Amino acid sequence: MLRVLQFTTERHRAAGEGGVITEWYKKELLAQARAEFDGLLRRLSKYRAKDWNVNDYKPLTGKQAGLYELRFKADKRSIARLGSFYLQPMLGAQTLMCWCY
Fold first, then answer.
1. How far is CA 94 from the centre of its chain?
2. What letter does residue 47 receive in the DSSP assignment?
3. Contact (CB, 8 A) for 98 and 21
4. What tens digit of pLDDT does each residue of 32-82 get?
5. Is 55 helix (H, G, I), strand (E, B) or coil?
6. CA separation for the pair 54, 79 (Å, rounded)
7. 96 partner at 20 to 30 Å CA-CA among 11, 47, 51, 58?
8. What is the CATH number of domain 2-100?
9. How far apart are CA 19 and CA 42, in angstroms?
10. Residue 25, phi then psi, degrees to nearest 5
């Protein structure tokens, strides 16, 4: 199971808008890109993180170690979003926190 969390600001909470990824998803992605992003999250949710396809994500190194780029192609461009990832063994869940766009 993959849970996706997102960073929210006071503005998002006051307006009941979700968060930064929801804002990016609704305002900047066309239908094809939304479908590709949804497909990426579905693919990642089927496998344990150690079995993820390296074309779908990239772990960052150096000062950015612990962060990941989620990658997909849509609308004739490559798109990458930052997130952090951690396991919750007690719940049997993997959590991907998307906090930047």
1. 12
2. S
3. yes
4. 999 998 898 888 888 777 788 888 888 888 988 777 788 888 888 888 776
5. coil
6. 15
7. 11
8. 3.30.2310
9. 20
10. -60, -45
